[in-house]
From TrEMBL:
One GO-annotated biological process of the protein: regulation of DNA-templated transcription
Transmembrane feature ranges: none
Domain (PHA accumulation regulator DNA-binding N-terminal) ranges: 7-66
Name by which UniProt lists this protein: Polyhydroxyalkanoate synthesis repressor PhaR
Domain called PHB accumulation regulatory: residue spans: 71-110, 125-162
Record-linked Pfam families: PHB_acc (PF05233), PHB_acc_N (PF07879)
Length: 190
């Protein structure tokens, strides 16, 4: 049995209408639904076109414009450079898997933190603040190592794919491409 998505309609006047509550909502409300793990779909009220991605991107843009952005200039330029490249189709699943793993790591940390606080061992707000200050560098180091490994794995996969492609097409002569050295020697003997 599949659960239906919560439908939000976007009208030409840019207002969002939540069909589940029969009321108008804001972009902040949509963000809150996402944070509450509500599966939703935003549709254009006039054309019925699914515009969920553009609304989600709008939320990300507003978050990035605020306090402390997640994406650096370099990350954003890499995203742009990925479009139209041969590996573009692999970028989405790669990022999706990494975010999934990050979410699992975050959930595990939250569970450990809750169990630490619920033991009744006298943790107060000051102690908790100190604990979190110590955890930030540890998490940053852990994520840095993970990203290095992911990057290395991705580059290795890309390199192997290039080699396999070269091997696959090495027997074909394509105009404008150099003949591999083995074939050049064979053609000189004839």
């Amino acid at each position: 049995m599949s659960i239906e998505k919560r439908v939000i309609k976007k009208y030409p006047n840019r207002r969002l209408y939540d069909t589940a509550t029969s009321s108008y909502i804001t972009l902040e409300d949509v963000k809150r639904l996402v944070l509450d793990n509500v599966d939703l779909q935003v549709v254009d009220a006039k054309t019925q076109e699914d515009i969920s991605r553009s609304v989600l991107l709008q939320i990300i843009l507003e978050e990035e414009s605020g306090g402390s952005p997640i994406f650096t200039h370099d990350v954003l330029t890499q995203f742009i450079r990925s479009y139209g490249q041969a590996m573009q189709g692999m970028m989405g699943p790669f990022l999706e898997k990494n975010l999934e793993i990050f979410g699992q790591l975050q959930k595990k940390m939250q569970e450990q933190s809750r169990s630490l606080c619920s033991d009744g061992n006298g943790w107060n707000a000051n102690l908790w603040g100190e604990y979190m200050k110590l955890q930030a560098p540890v998490m940053q180091n852990l994520m840095s190592n993970y990203m290095e490994q992911s990057s290395s794995t991705f580059l290795d996969m890309q390199s192997r794919m290039q080699e396999q492609t070269k091997q696959l097409f090495s027997g074909f002569a394509f105009p404008g491409f150099p003949v591999p050295p083995v074939q050049a020697e064979d053609s000189n003997k004839k």
